[in-house]
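REQUEST
  id: r-88c1
  op: predict_structure
  target: FAD-binding protein
  payload:
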Amino acid sequence: MRNSWDVVIVGAGPAGMSAAIETTKHGLSTLVLDRQIEPGGQIFRSVASSPLIHELGGDYAAGRPLAQRFLACGAQFEAGANVWDISPDQIYFSQNGRSQGVRCRQVLLASGAMERPVPLPGWTLPGVMGSGASDVLLKSASLLPQGPVVLCGNGPLILQAAVHLHHYKVPVRAVLFTGRLRNALLAMRHMAGAFARPAYFLHGMSMAAQTFLKHKCIFGAHDIRMEQDSPGGLKISYTGRGGRKTLAAATVLLHEGVISESRITRLARCRHQWNERQRYWHVSADMWGQTSVPAIRTAGDVAGVRGAVAAQAEGSLVGLDICRELGRLTTAQRDAEATFCRRVLWRCRALQPFLDQYFAPLPSMLQPADEAVVCRCEELTAGQLRKIVQQGCYTPDGLKAQARPGMGTCQGRMCGSAVVEMIAQTQGLPLESLPLYTAQPPLFPLRIGELVAMRSSADSL
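RESPONSE
  id: r-88c1
  status: 200
  body:
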C-alpha cells in the first residue's frame, strides 16, 4: 500500500462512501478505512451481500446501489482496519495484526453513530442486547432473536425491531415504551418540519401503527429490571399503570436512542457541542464538514444523528469541498455540484427537531440503579461509582482516575454517557459542562508487538 494519499476517510458508511465517490471522481487519491469487512456502516450493514435485501425495506435496499458505486469508484478500501491514532496529516491503523501509518492532505472522519448504552439491572445477562445489535445480526448473518421477546425503550429502532419480528413470526411478549406522552405533544411544535420529508414521516407513522396494532404495548414503563429466571429464560419486572408487574421472555432488546460515536473526534481534539434534547455530545462542524482542527473534517452521524439520507448528502458535500480545497474544483463549480445535496440536507435538518423531541430520552431512564453494572469491563456498579462521586469527584476523567471506569477494553465507549449522567445528578452540575472521557491513543487495544514492529511512511516508532 502507498504511504501518502490526498484523502483518508475513516468509516465506510453512507457518508464515507459518498465522499469517496466525489473525491475519486475529481482525481484525488483516496483511502477508506473501516472496521467491518464490507462497506455500508451500521445502517447499511452487509448491504452488498445480504440475502434479505428485499425483505428489510426500501431504506435498507437503497444502500446497495451506493455500495456498488463506491466499490467501483477507484478508492482503495481497506476492510478490517481499526484506526487507533490520528493527526491532521497522519493516520495510524491496525489491520490483520499489523499496525502502520499513512500520510494525507485531508482527513475525513465518518465514524457514524452508536446505540446509546443504558445500564439497567441485568443488562449484562445472556439474552439481553441492544435493539441495534439485533438488527446487525439480522442484516449480516440472517439471525433472529429467540422468542418470546420483550422490547424496552424509546426510539425508532424499537419500532423497526417490532415490525421485523412480526414479519419473521418471532413472538413478542410486550413492547415497553419508556418515553413520555408530553414529548409527543411538544413535538407537534415542529410538525411543519416533519413534512419536509413526507415519505419518511409517513413510513415512521406506519411502523408505529403496525407496532401498536400487532403487539401488546405498555406505555410509561419505568424501573425496568432483568433477572435470570431459568436456563435460557429471563424475568423482566417493571413499574407501569397498576403497579409492579413481571414478564417472562427468552430475549430482551433495549433501545434508548442513537448517539454520535465521538471517540475518534475527541481523540483528534475537535470542538464538540451538546445536543440538549437527545443528551449527547457530537463534533461541531460547518456545512462542509470543517471542524475546529484544520484539515480534519467530519460527515454523517458523527456530527449529529440525522440518518442515512442526510449522511449521504453530507458526505458528498464534504467530498466536493475537499476537491475545492485541493485545487480540483473552483468555488463556483463546487456550489453548482452541491445544489441537490444541499436541498436534501435542508429537508433532513428540518425534520430532525420533530424526531429529537418525539424520542427525547426520559432523564430517569439514563440514571442507573445502584445495583446496575455501569462499567462492564471493570465490573463496576452504579452504587460503587456514586459513592466516589459523593466524596468529591466532579469530572469523568477524575472518576476514571479514582475508580477505573473507562479503562477497560472498550475505553469508555459503553460507560461514558452513564458516568456523565451520574456525576451531573449527584453534584448538581449541568450536563453540558461535563465532557466525556478524554480520548487517548491507542483507541483500540493493541499488541505491544504491533507497536514495536510498526513503521510509518516517515519514520519508525
